[in-house]
Fold these 3 entries.
Entry 1:
Amino acid sequence: MKKNILLVFITVISFSLFAQKGFHLGASGAFDANFIYTQNNYGTLAPFTEPYVRVSEMNYRFTYGGNGGIVLGYNFKSDWGLQGEVRYATAGQKYEDNFIGPAILPQGTFGGSYERVNVKREIKLAYVQIPIMAKYISRFGHTAKLFVCLGPQFGVRTAASEQVKIADITYLPDSLAFTSKQKFKTFDMGIALQIGAEVYVTDNLYFDLGLSGYAGLLDLNGKVLKTLGWFSHNDVKYQQSRNANVGLVVGIHYLFGRGKEEDY
């Protein structure tokens, strides 16, 4: 309770200090296409009898997600400043492929020597993310101004789940061997980018619309994955896995002071 009161107090004080010219406050959200690069099968295909199938990689499938949160920023001059966000975001990856059987499960044997068996794998991750970006705003334009934001992004994973289905039968529930939280690290970090336009309704109120992207720099796999047959026949050593996304971002903001025409 005391921590919550202190957090509210700090927020109020910070707002009072920065609620002056150049400070902007808003909310934003994004719709993303999510990716996990070099995420091998990690034992997913163990039920298949053919050795080359068990070490195969799986095809990527389109995986969507999104984020939403609050935005705080300060323009040191009319054309550049700093912008930070605190937001909740989803991440992960879907995979689906067909492999030559048979696949032997507790429920039975599926697929013959020349019959293909469908395999689906889905990883779901959720993070609290904090990007801190330098921001450049074009001096050109009155109603609309172009902007670019670039900087580091930090993420703390809050949830993780994994589901594998072979021949539409759940093969790898979270309770088997290791939990998803053990398989994927808690902390993530990378580079965030936003490019778009600020569209002013008034001198102080504006909407922004643009493209966002993120490239992770850290391996998201936990140590236990290296014990589950992480390798594939395309690799001679362990390959790190990283989060990435690209999407469409929209937001609404209020710029304190005299607004967009202020020469800071």
Entry 2:
Amino acid sequence: MDVTELNNLIESFGKDIYGFCYKLTRDKHQADDLYQETFLRATELCYKIDNTQNPKSFLIAIAANTWKNQKRKFGWRHNIAKIVAFEDDTHLIDATTPELVVLTNELHTMIDMASESLDDKLKIPLYMYYTAGLSVEDIASALKIPTGTVKSRLYRARKMIKEYMEVNGYEGF
């Protein structure tokens, strides 16, 4: 694969990859950095990308592995010097009534909080499935784990989110 083919992949899957990066980082600036790092790494590894296989899952795997590495490095740095983080996670939802907007925002906030509290082993496959739209087989291939493991992690993540929602008083989930 050459650079022009990689450029076509960016055009085809760029929004999905960025959405996945944003879900992992929960911050626009960090998502931008992760997105750039992902495609820089993809440029280095373009000879391994096979268009007949699922190139989107390959790029998602690069993003996930880059995020894990950055998070591990941040953990070491955070132990040395504490960093204050500012949250700016707003949801802009177009709805017909103000009540529906408030309820939908509350639901999204609760789901985000529940998914953020998950371990990376559960969170990354969950985001790959729902945010990036990858199949169970593609997630398994990208993370180099069996499909049964992906299915069980998705099940456990959904179950934990459901329990979180029930404990916090949200019915009907």
Entry 3:
Amino acid sequence: MILASASPVGLTLAVAAAVAYLISGLGAARLGARTTRIAVWLAWLLHGLLLGLSLTGAELRFGFAPALSVTAWLIAAVYAVESHLYPLLETRWTLSALGAVAVLLGVLFPGNLLHPSASVWLPLHWALGIASYGLFGAAVVHAWFMSRAEERFRLAADPHSGMPLLTMERLTFRFVSVGFVLLSATLLVGLLFETRLYGSSSGLKFDHKTAFSLLSWLTFAVLLLGRSRLGWRGKRAIRVLYIGAGLLLLAYVGSRFVMEIVLGRST
């Protein structure tokens, strides 16, 4: 989650994880379901080792790329478990490409150094936020799978999606519900203790990150309320989910990308 500067070991792990991700996606048709599932697990383990190694670095950093890297790792974990429970669930090249790109970006752009006066609770605050990213990311992936499966079913092109649609729908909104709880906790901690967390004396700031985070929280609240009270399902619910996930992506990853890469600023 908090990445140190790239090292030879880190680069080796990153390249190996990226290769395993690509094998799991691009080689699925030739290697078979069992081999591709093994590749998914191998990629996930190598990716996890890289993240664990980063925690032992002397210089702790964080930025848009580490956030993406951890989010991709959490999504890969969910998919690896589900591919074991549902062997017919295909390995998608888009997921593999996401994992490969994210793990390499996390090493190439490790982010900014953690402020020396930042609170020891800051990693927990980030962990809650990134966990919510991962859960909403998994929900988005499931929603996309569900849309594709429904389209193929209507066209009678491939009635076997590997996972029943109702099961996929339930899992999607379970991820949304848990992600919403974690996002709520993240926002509450951030809004109440921002000065302590970030070691800043400027007090509470209502910046782009806060604005997009609150907008995403409101969007997910509307989605859950609409589903429970109004019975939202199908395309309407998926569209709202996409909007909320897009706003959440802009909240930290988008804002940090602009600050670090476009503007070249550390704060």
